[in-house]
Amino acid sequence: MDQQKLLGRISFNPKIFGGKPIIRGKRLAVEHVLGMLAAGSSVETLLQGYPWLEQEDVLACLAYARRLVGNERVEPVLNPVAEDAGTTK
Question: What CATH number does the domain containing 43 carry?
Answer without folding.
Answer: 1.10.10.10
